[in-house]
Amino acid sequence: MPIVQCDHVNKTYRQGNIQVRALREVSLEVDKGGFVALSGPSGSGKTTLLNIIGGLDLADSGAVVVDGESLEQMSQTQLAEMRLQKVGFVFQAYNLVPVLSALENVEFVMLLQGVPTDERRKRARAILDAVGLEGRHDRRPRELSGGQQQRVAVARAIVSNPAIVLADEPTANLDSKTGQGLLEMMRQMNQERGVTFIFSTHDQMVMDFARRLVIIRDGQVVDDRVKG
Fold first, then answer.
1. Dihedral angle of Cα 41, 43, 44, 48, to the nearest 10 degrees
2. How far is CA 121 from CA 43, 84, 110, 163, in A?
3. Which of 36, 122, 148, 157 has a CB 3.0–4.6 Å from the CB of 144, allowing a cystine?
4. What is the CA angle 183-209-33, rounded to 5?
5. pLDDT (0 to 100) of residue 117
């Protein structure tokens, strides 16, 4: 069974007196272990689709199933629990807590999950080392470069072994060398850990790394191809 199933998903936003159709009858399936890029111009609907898959927003109509659970049938409390247990998020603005160290930022999701202190600290240290941040565990976000902050964000997203990681423009604020290093790290984790990654992007480098490319334009899927 696919880990993500979207069936005829529609979403409309109101901007003043104008209604904007962000998604139009979008149907999409992603298999477990996928490494997928959603691409398209700004305003095409790719971030909206990512947010709906992650339960941050709800579709107006259509069905969304994530890891066997139907999102439209969930309460807000159930959606929050689903996000906590099954989905890791990587945002282009990093969204790290500025007063917490890198280690504490990575621990935060596990703290909410009720993981015992010793266990979550052990896992947080191991994952920070795995993403190349040895010796930087105690640094706060302002003491880290943009690439290092994004690595902390990726570590935080995957440390709790989510079913899926959703990354919204993860390379947008990074130079090409740093972005390539981040993508190589995520691809390695996809291959070694089986973590499913879905990106929204208009970065050609992300599209090149992806094994499957879904093109969205004007809220519709206009191309969907697996790369050889």
1. 130
2. 40, 18, 9, 21
3. 148
4. 85
5. 95
Domains of the chain from N-terminus onward:
34-50+84-226 (3.40.50.300)
Q: Which two tokens stand for residue 148?
A: 């290092």
**Cα–chain center distance at 43:** 18
Give me the phi and psi of 222, to 5 degrees please: -110, -15
Which whole-number Å values give the CA distances from 5 to 63, 66, 81, in the listed order?
8, 7, 19
Nearest residue to 145 via CA among 186, 177, 168, 123: 177
Please tell me the distance from the alpha carbon of residue 6 to that of residue 8, in angstroms, as a whole number: 7
Strand partners, 107: none
What pTM did the predictor assign? 0.90
